[in-house]
# Entry
Amino acid sequence: MPKLIDHDARRKDFARAAVAVIGEQGIDNTRLVDVAREAGATTGALTHYFNDKDAVLLAALDHLAQGILHRLKTSVEADDLVALAAEILPVNEESRCEWRVWMSFFGRAVGDPALARINKAYYDEFRDGLAAIIRQQQREGKLSRDVDPAVTGDAIISILDGFSIRATLEPEEWPAARQRSQLEAMLRPLLPAPLPAQRKAKRGKKDAEA
# Structure
């Protein structure tokens, strides 16, 4: 009886392997044979799923992006946006590897309009995911209604990108504790609690609905 293969799972295995290889060797030095070896497969098995190296690279990028989007989509009712953002920081070797891969694509996107568009689409989704969480917190009275969800979502992304790049390149200067402290200092002012009048109005609305 032929062996059943989960093709989606196999693609994900190769994407994870590509992330590991790119994070270690960089995009230019990544070879298909290296990705196949990391996945415990042959090059022929890899090329059964991906036509060429560029397809493998895009699968690695998508794997990282989907991981972030999954966090956002499953955290719509997150009580603490700062804690959620902290999950993405490069605080250990695995997360630093992911950031090295993400950063590698920045350089490529400068001279590749198609990749730049893909990158922008991911960032738009990140912003929209954060904005959804912000709006939910505003409805629940946890966050001031003066906060603009989309603008604040972009600000959170820019802050994370900014010092996470430094932390990835300078891990000894940016241990986990310093990263989290810096994140607190930069994000908390963007996420004020509701003003007393807003809290009172929300209570009044609830009483009226009751």
